[in-house]
Amino acid sequence: MAAADYSAAFTALKPVLGRYASRLYVRVDKPDHYYLETKSRSYKGERTFFAGIRAGKSHVSFYLMPVYSYPGLQKGISPGLKRRMHGKSCFN
User: Fold this and answer.
1) Would you state the torsion angle of the CA atoms of residues 88, 85, 36, 42, taken in this order, to the nearest 10 degrees?
2) Beta-carbon count within 10 A of 63 CB
3) Are the C-beta atoms of residues 70 and 83 closer than 8 Å to each other?
4) So what's the pLDDT on residue 13?
5) How many CB atoms lie within 10 A of CB 56?
6) What are phi and psi of 81, to 5 degrees?
7) What residues contact 57, with CB distance under 8 A and at least 6 apart?
């Protein structure tokens, strides 16, 4: 995939998370990464990471912490997307 394709993937994924920005806290909003956290500070007075997208040189990473915190959610992930899963909450 060309670098421009990665940019297009990032651009397509950002609105998916953007729909939740009003209910969450936008920690980072830059051309190559976008991170959402909980609004409330819970763990040691810090916000909890919820989801994010990061465009790298060779891939785009999509992080979704609820998949890590609630493993039962993985049952709803398609086999194709499951193959792109790296670790417990990252998709490349």
Assistant:
1) -10
2) 19
3) no
4) 93
5) 13
6) -70, -35
7) 3, 6
**Torsion sign across C-alpha atoms 70, 11, 56, 40:** negative
Distance between CA atoms of residues 60 and 77, nearest Å: 18
CA pair distance 69, 80, nearest whole angstrom: 21
Strand boundaries in 1-92, DSSP class E? 25-30, 33-43, 46-55, 60-64, 85-86, 90-91
Compute the distance between CA of residue 63 and CA of residue 85 in angstroms, rounded to an integer.
10
Residues facing residue 85 across a β-bridge: 91
Residue appearing with tokens 């670098």: 3
Spatial separation of the C-alpha atoms in residues 29 and 16, rounded to whole Å: 14
Model pLDDT for residues 31-89, shown as the tens digit of each residue: 999 999 999 998 789 999 999 999 988 889 999 999 999 999 999 999 999 999 999 99
Question: Tell me, what's the pLDDT at 3?
Answer: 55
